[in-house]
Design a protein that fits this description.
Blueprint: H1 4-11, E1 16-23, E2 31-38, E3 43-46, H2 54-65, E4 69-71, H3 75-85, E5 92-94, H4 95-100, H5 110-118, H6 138-149, H7 151-165, H8 168-176, H9 203-223, H10 227-230, H11 233-242, H12 247-251, H13 258-276, H14 290-310, H15 314-317, H16 320-327, H17 338-353
Parallel strand pairs: 1-4, 4-5
Antiparallel strand pairs: 1-2, 2-3
Helix pairs in contact: 9-11, 9-13, 14-16, 14-17
């Protein structure tokens, strides 16, 4: 799993650049297929699918976690490694986050950043490659290596510019958000939030959908299959509305295959029955009234003015969805914490509490 050179490079505990290649089209969990690691002197493409002993694999991950990481748009990279190694690095620096705080496009891709910073155009010729196939040819490995070769120089350049503007700590704070396990841990009881349209159901119907979503999440994890393969959102909502009490009623629903009904009807009907006795009083979020609409516009204007003064996009300070939630009483948004609170969040709280 780890060559002598790689082991020596990671043992220094200096910052390393990280990228991953994975596939997820047919599974619930991403399958980690390649880990690219760049140091100041070398680039390594590590094959997590290669046959190796457990001690070598454990040593590799342990060494990896003790080095600070530089990534670009790193949430999925952290997630797939967290799921594969059950561990996270001690610190990360996300160059996409850093670039956005300097006024670049908030979702700027790695190739765009490299072209902006270094006037180097990367060839994106293997974006649809199947990284689970072996062997990986030299052209694929070279393509993979390009995804980390510019990360450490980009980190250095972006950090220098951020330091000059007094924003380096902002980038470090936002990057550190990637290391919150809550982002990646699976809680079936919260799976209802992933069902499109479920928030519009009322009372017991929402309760049924929540129980079905939790069941689907557990099944997806147990079978390592995408949620929609277990049950599509539309069918899940149709079941909640229909409230079937028998297998025959369940099978009669459009989109319900006899195979699924035969395999899962006991669990589905049990979820429906249990939810009927929950006495749920859930109500869909109310539409904003005129006062709330006016307040939201005031908040957006304050955020837009602050962002313009900084030369960054408004959504980096506080996206509209977050401000809308705040108007409805949610004070957990990022704008009320860390550097954003000092910049504008505390002032927004004053407007909200008037």
């Amino acid at each position: 799993m780890s060559s002598g050179r790689l082991r020596k490079a990671l043992s220094t505990r200096n910052r390393i650049a990280i990228d991953t290649e994975f596939v997820r089209e047919r599974t619930f969990f991403s399958q980690l297929c390649l880990v690219q690691v760049a140091t100041d002197d070398d680039i390594f493409c590590v094959d997590p699918l290669a046959e190796t002993d457990g001690d070598a694999r454990a040593e590799f991950w342990e060494l990896m976690m003790h080095s600070p990481w530089t990534l670009h748009s790193g949430r999925q990279d952290v997630e797939v490694i967290y799921q594969s190694a059950d561990a996270m690095p001690e610190s990360v620096f996300d160059t996409q986050v850093a670039a956005a705080l300097l006024g670049y496009a908030p979702q700027m891709g790695y190739a765009g950043m490299v072209e902006e910073l270094f006037d180097v155009r990367l060839a994106k010729t293997h974006t649809r490659a199947d990284w689970s196939k072996r062997p990986l040819g030299p052209e694929l490995l070279e393509y993979a290596a390009e995804d980390v070769i510019h990360l450490l120089p980009a980190h250095e350049l972006l950090a220098e510019r951020l330091q000059q503007l007094g924003r380096l700590a902002w980038a470090e704070q936002d990057s550190a958000d990637l290391l919150r396990p809550q982002l990646y841990d699976i809680d079936p009881e919260l799976a209802i939030a992933k069902v499109k349209g479920a928030r519009n159901l009322k009372g017991v119907l929402h309760g049924i959908a929540a129980r079905l979503a939790a069941w689907r999440e557990r099944e997806a994890v147990r079978n390592n299959r995408p949620r929609q393969w277990i049950m599509k959102d539309k069918l899940l909502l149709d079941i909640a509305v229909a409230r079937p009490a028998t297998r025959e009623e369940l099978t009669a629903l459009p989109g319900m295959s006899p195979r699924t009904a035969g395999r899962a009807s006991p669990d589905i009907l049990a979820a429906v029955k249990a939810a009927k006795s929950d006495d749920s009083d859930y109500k869909p979020p109310a539409r904003p009234n005129e006062a709330q609409k006016s307040l939201l516009k005031v908040l957006q204007k304050r955020v837009a003015d602050s962002a313009e003064e900084l030369g960054i996009a408004s959504e980096i300070v506080a996206p509209r969805k977050e401000l809308s939630a705040a108007v409805n009483g949610d004070r957990n948004g990022r704008v009320f914490n860390g550097w954003r609170a000092e910049l504008i969040g505390n002032d927004l709280l004053g407007l909200l509490d008037d």
